Amino acid sequence: MGTENDLTVRDRFQALLGRDDAHLWLFGIGAVVLAVLPFALSTFWTRIALGALMWIGLAQSWNMIGGYAGYLDFGHGAYFGVGAFVTGIVMVELELPFVAGLLIAGVFCAVLAYVVGVPTLRLSGAYFAIATWAFAEAIKELALILEITGGTYGMTFPTGPGTSGIPLVGWPDEMFFYYLMMVLTLGTIALAYFLFEHSEFGFRVKAIRDHEDAAQSLGIDATKIKRRVYVISCVIAALFGGANAYYITFIHPNDVLAPIITDQMIIMALLGGLGTIGGPIIGGVLIFLLNRLSSLFLGNTTIYLPLIGLLIMVTVLFAPSGVIGILRGEVGREDVKQNLRELAEKFDIL
Amino acid sequence: MSADTPQQTSRSEASPPVLRAEGIVTGYGDHEVIHDVDIQSHEGITCLFGPNGSGKSTLLKTLNGIVPIWEGTITYGDVDLSNATPDEIVREGIATVPQGGGVFGTLTVEENLRVGGFTVSEQDAYRRRREEVLDAFPALEDKLGDRASSLSGGQQMMVSLGRAMMTGADTFLLDEPSAGLSPALVEDAFELVERLVDRGARVILIEQNVTAALRLADHVNILVAGELAFDGSPAELSDEEELMEVYLGL
Amino acid sequence: LGGGSDRGGDKFKFGVVTSLSGDLRFGGEVTRRGYDLWKKTINENGGIEVDGSSYEVELTYADAKSDPSTGADAASQMITSEKVDAVLGPYSSNVTLAVAPIMEKNQTPHISGSAESPRIWEEQYKHTFGTVPTVTLIARQAAEEILSLDPTAESVYVSGVNGPFSKATASAMRDAAENKGVEVLAYDLNPSDTDWTSVVSSAKSEDPDLHFHGGHIGSHVSLLKAADQLNYDPNGFFCHYGVNTSDFKDGLGGDASGTFGATVWLPSIERTGGKLFGSAADYAKAARDEFDQSPDYTQAASSAAGIVYQQALEELGAAPPLSDTEQSKLVSILEDIEVQTFYGDVTFDKEGDFYHNNTTTSPLPVQLQGDDDEAVVVGSSASASEANYPVSE
Amino acid sequence: MVSTELLSQSIINGLLLGGIYVTVGVGFALVFGVLEIIDFAVGEYVMLGAFTGAIVAPMVGGEGLLVVPLAFVAFFLVGVVIQPFIHHVTTGDRPMPLLMGLVFTFGLATFMRGSILTIFGPNTRNVPTNALSGGIEIGGLGTFPEVRVVTAVVGVLSLVAFMYYLYRTTGGTAIRAIAEDRDIARLMGVNINRYQSIAYGVYAGLTATGGVFIGLIYSAGPGMGLQYTAFAFFMIVLAGLGYLPGIIISGIVLGLAQSLTAVYLGGELVFFVLFGMIYVLLLVRPEGLLGKGEVA
Amino acid sequence: MSETLLQTDGLTKRFGALTANDEITLGVDRGEIRGLIGPNGSGKTTFFNSLTGFYTPDEGTVTFDGTDITGWESHRIAREGVGRTFQIAAPFGNMTVRQNMLAVQTPKSVDEHERAQEILEFLDIDHIADDDASGMSGGQKKLLGLGRVLMLDPECILLDEPTAGVNPALADRILEHLRELNDRGTTFMIIEHDMDVLKQIVDTVSVLDQGRHIVQGTFEEVSTDDRVREAYLGSADDDEVPV
Ligand SMILES: Nc1ncnc2c1ncn2[C@@H]1O[C@H](COP(=O)(O)OP(=O)(O)OP(=O)(O)O)[C@@H](O)[C@H]1O
Ligand SMILES: Nc1ncnc2c1ncn2[C@@H]1O[C@H](COP(=O)(O)OP(=O)(O)OP(=O)(O)O)[C@@H](O)[C@H]1O
Ligand SMILES: [Mg+2]
Ligand SMILES: [Mg+2]
């Protein structure tokens, strides 16, 4: 090995990140790798990859409102589910192709998010979190009793050639969905980057997160900016919801509107690193794979549940800025020791 | 006014021990803020001046145990307090009046005093101290049942000082007690500090209201960028024209 | 990474997609015992015989984690990575409904030993079959028999959980009552984790002769506990699914006695018998030896699903691994198959609302009786025991 | 055909259901209002309490009530040990301490639920009791299930005990002082670690005790916690954040809404009505039903 | 030429039973520096909050440059030309000091980066420009608050105790800069408890007591007014001991 011997992987990673155009490079390389990936994978692994892509996108969409704007949206999954059902209703009831369903779902959820956002975004902190949670639960219960969603019997999507509405692809197979998710996810990441990391808009969003009153006094229209972020992030969740529904072909309120959908987005964003571009990517891949592949490594047991629980606790304890914090070198051995020392002090309870 | 004839307690007869910090180095995270500073509580009022961000509050917080020190020693008389926790330090007889008073707004005045006397397990001692406090600040007597947040700024400062007295301390650490108070209340605040000293206490006082504080000071320290730029009497300070002008705006 | 290794041809390989974790883990475990026992027994007997040579059976599991999309991925894993010859299906209709399309896409045969929801068969999936008659049939027939017990009930209160399986069950119960001309006082659907005192209070004020309830075990337990707390006691409770499980009996801690249920199979039942296990009793013994607990009908139906494959493969006469055309042929064989088993006779409907569902095996009402709450068949069938009715404790 | 008996029975059911929610809400209101912890594990303490009942009761003669003191002490100790971790993640220079606490306890809840599921399996278990079974009929009014009555009484009594501790004792005053400003409380000589641990321990113990009762009423299952977590949140919102006595009102409102909706509007609608109501109430009255809560 | 820039008319704000601002009628002329004094709790900060849209006044109107801005949202008022600082420092804690400056909604024409740097240098906090704002000392946070409102560059700036807790040497420089800005046309209203500061800088002073606007005049007039002495100054300019 040459003189670069002394550089650890982390140093190199940091060096790369330090470059001005690093993000562009990473994004480009990532996109190319993703584009050729399915040719190297079996159908099963393609499915896993597309699942991971979807969760990255979902985690990033939550990160927009939760991480960047600081509004803990505990009902984000509602839009995933509503997107799924609207897409389905358009396809089943109106017999329109999938593409139309997805677009209508996007528009529908934009309007819904706007209408919901106006009163709900007036709340903050725990109030906002609980309100959105209750909202999402109410939506789920509504879907269970409505006729048009299939109620508790769920909804089956039309499949087969022609249902997608995209002439190039006949029968929508895994490849189709892989590229669909890839486009959605890369689009989400690029959007998040330009909105939050590459414009004054991003500073304003963060200013609102840190001190809303002060932001207002400096001419920042908090109401409008929050609403914009909320609508964008909800529409993204809805698009993923619609795409996923057509892919799975069967949806049920208890599945696509389950609170665990939101919980996962939050955990992924947080574990990876809140309010960053890379965080949800890392967190999304990590948690999704752990969830989906745990049985390959751990056998058929539920032991992965307590393990995920532990992983979350340990991350919060020692790497509050998430895995991205570790990669950036914010969490070194010294910090862990320091953390342990401080923690030990808190056990002085006698 | 009772200020002239303070109730003599057994404590105030002997001068309290000296609180002495030597070679203090500390900071936040990796960022060192205080670089090898010595400071001690002199007889009467020891003032600590310095520009914003020079580390005054940080230094004070090492003395009361909120900020742990990286290097150096802190002693109180012959007790080593270098690694002591805030409650141990309070029990030794060192009380803090935080910036702005820091009263517990949702608690009543009485309850604030009770929290102040938290370390006092003996009922008699507790009652005696409470008497002393009400003696020193008669204005509080009518307000005992009121929420502390409903009091005026000056009254809140009385609560804060009274609460510190409840701990039974004879050394007081005060962080900008006059900040934000109206002129009448600034007067009050300084008068209250003087009363503490009259009762035999030693005080370390951070102030930006340099003019007023200098009138009371028995000893002056000036902290600049985490290092001690001056350590001496007010009289000696008046010779240091440059210091006075650059850091104290005088 | 990449595809699964090319498998050798000495064994028939079946993929099992079922929920081994998550909310449905209990049912998933039951199906797993059924599939495992079939595999063990057939391998002890030398395997599946095709053209004179025998091939052992290999099962490979994938956990659906009670989640449809995980189930779909698991199914895909079975087909594309594990390259299985056929698939044994999941527990619960939601997961089945997500797995079935994968089977259609890959034209892989798929038999479920436990799915009972009518929704599955309405979709008319060509490659999916089920050995348990849909709950629409089970609940209706059992209900009709219970309604015929003496003294004949004049009114019934129907409650249920608002879930796909449970709602189908409750509505079948209601249909049964309407068929028999019994007054249905209410048809009351609730979320599964609701507080059942409301249902009980409404029911109590209606004062029905019988109370029918469609749900899973948890809701039965809550309902019956609430009934106990509010001193509500009609002549009998009929709950489906799962009164004959330890989960139900443990959950009620000794108060389960007298509850009516429905089944298509019991260890004590008389069936023609046939392949692999000579009789229901033989099967029950084998199951107890293996798992140390009595099998219920879901487990039996899961084992029967294996036996159906066994006979179909014998008829097909192709050695493993099966080619795509052989898999398609296997599906056509399944469509026409008639198998006699310890579980009962199995055939699959070829059209109608129960397309590819086995509607041949006949359902029976049961009741928990005696000190250890043994389930016994009651009603009009030849071997039926005397029902404890009106139920006294 | 409106039966007054059914109406009064429904009201009884609603009130007693509210009593069950109170047992869960009390401790939660304390840790939320005083320690500023949004504890996602609240429902899991209920679950653990119920499981303790299911497992220990058969060893003590099949009487679930005997498990209550044990559950309280055991989970008090568990809480005392867990609190320093939560304290650690919600202080210091961490960004968004509220979220950190929330996510940490989310991990804790996942850990608890997953462990129980892995160790004991998914089955529901009975928590037996001989002392409390059946209901007391009061002519014209309806039936009062014994176990539910006792639960509601325990819930209200623990609220009273909490209020007494917080407002009448020095330790309680110290806890309220900590709630306002941890550092200043330390400067008054309060060992904040100890008092926070006590508060959290009492919460964990009480909630687990509530869990034993809930196990007696329903049964114990590893997945039962989630809905109580949701209800605990809604309890404190309706009560008005930080306003302890409001817990009684919110229990009553939730219980009655649930019971009356089920009987008069239809069981399917129960949770839709409940969640919808909570959402709308939060929008129009974030300071709680009584208007005594603090609004962030 | 004296022309009224900011005018309130009967402005009233109540909190429950407490009337924190009681029919305050007060005008600030274009180009002047107005002092606002009064005892703690007399309603000064509330007045600022009512002016800038943080509170909706119960009664009365606010007019700025001829436009009625009563009840406007605060960001609109800020863009209209009324900037303010907070008594309790309110930095955006999870951003760097520089990002705090860049977040401000500035007019499109200026080079934000250059401007931010100039202001940070002037306030003597440029050395920590790329540190997290949450780690600043009390005084530094105040300075950042001032820096941000200077970024906004409004026609009229309301300062809530800009020098409280600020080192006197720096306080002097801040005042000097305010005067400079004032010379270039910015109008100020300053809440300040330090009489020495006020004396140096203000043109006129308004005094609030218990929510009411009791006196207005030059510093000299006001500081010798009996009501003011009684309510506010106490023994500061007097030898009598307050009761
Ligand atoms: N919690 C903290 N985390 C990180 N850095 C801090 C923290 N508190 C203070 N600092 C830094 O330490 C230095 C000293 O701060 P300190 O508060 O002690 O100053 P000070 O002399 O009291 O100033 P002021 O007069 O403005 O109150 C400052 O540069 C500040 O940025
Ligand atoms: N949001 C609020 N809710 C209730 N009461 C309030 C609120 N804001 C201020 N008050 C009350 O209104 C009165 C005026 O407060 P304000 O903050 O305006 O005083 P101030 O003149 O700025 O005092 P100081 O000089 O101490 O800053 C006080 O009695 C205060 O307690
Ligand atoms: Mg300071
Ligand atoms: Mg003010």
Task: Report on the architecture of this protein.
The complex is a heteropentamer of chains A (350), B (250), C (393), D (296) and E (243). Chain A has helices at 9-18, 22-40, 43-68, 77-93, 98-120, 125-145, 174-197, 200-210, 212-217, 222-248, 253-256, 259-272, 278-298, 304-318, 323-327, 333-345, and strands at residues 155-156, 250-251. Chain A has 350 residues and is mainly α. In chain A, helix 3 packs parallel to helix 7 (174-197). Chain B has a single domain (6-247), classed as P-loop containing nucleotide triphosphate hydrolases (Rossmann fold, 3-Layer(aba) Sandwich). Helices cover 36% and strands 24% of the residues of chain B. In chain B, a hairpin with a 2-residue loop joins strand 4 and strand 5 (79-80). The model of chain B is unreliable at 1-12 (pLDDT under 50). With 296 residues, chain D is mostly helical. Chain D has a single domain (4-284), classed as ABC transporter involved in vitamin B12 uptake, BtuC (Orthogonal Bundle), CATH 1.10.3470. Chain D contains 11 helices and 2 strands. Chain D has helices spanning 4-33, 42-56, 67-89, 97-120, 146-168, 170-180, 182-187, 192-217, 225-239, 246-265, 270-284, and strands at residues 135-138, 142-145. Chain D has a two-stranded antiparallel sheet. Chain D is globular, with a radius of gyration of 19 Å. Chain D binds chain E through residues 93, 95, and chain E through 93-94, 134-135. One magnesium ion is lined by residues 44-45, 87, 160 of chain E.
In short, what is this structure?
The complex is a heteropentamer of chains A (350), B (250), C (393), D (296) and E (243). With 393 residues, chain C is α/β, with parallel strands linked by helices. Chain C is 40% helix and 19% strand.
Helices and strands in order:
The complex is a heteropentamer of chains A (350), B (250), C (393), D (296) and E (243).
Chain B lengths: L9 H4 L5 E10 L2 E10 L4 E5 L6 H8 L7 E6 L2 E2 L5 H7 L1 E4 L11 H8 L6 H14 L16 H14 L4 E5 L7 H16 L3 E5 L3 H7 L2 E6 L2 E6 L1 H4 L3 H8 L2
Parallel strand pairs in B: 3-8, 3-9, 6-7, 7-8
Antiparallel strand pairs in B: 1-2, 1-4, 4-5, 9-10
Helix pairs in contact in B: 4-6, 5-6, 6-7
Chain C lengths: L10 E8 L6 H20 L3 E3 L2 E11 L4 H14 L4 E3 L4 H14 L3 E3 L5 H5 L5 E3 L4 H13 L7 E7 L2 H16 L3 E8 L6 H10 L3 E5 L2 H13 L6 E5 L5 H7 L7 E4 L16 H12 L5 H20 L7 H13 L2 E3 L2 E3 L17 E6 L4 E4 L16
Parallel strand pairs in C: 1-3, 1-4, 4-5, 5-6, 7-8, 7-9, 9-10
Antiparallel strand pairs in C: 2-3, 11-14, 12-13, 14-15
Chain D lengths: L3 H30 L8 H15 L10 H23 L7 H24 L14 E4 L3 E4 H23 L1 H11 L1 H6 L4 H26 L7 H15 L6 H20 L4 H15 L12
Antiparallel strand pairs in D: 1-2
The structure holds adenosine-5'-triphosphate (2 copies) and magnesium ion (MG) (2 copies).
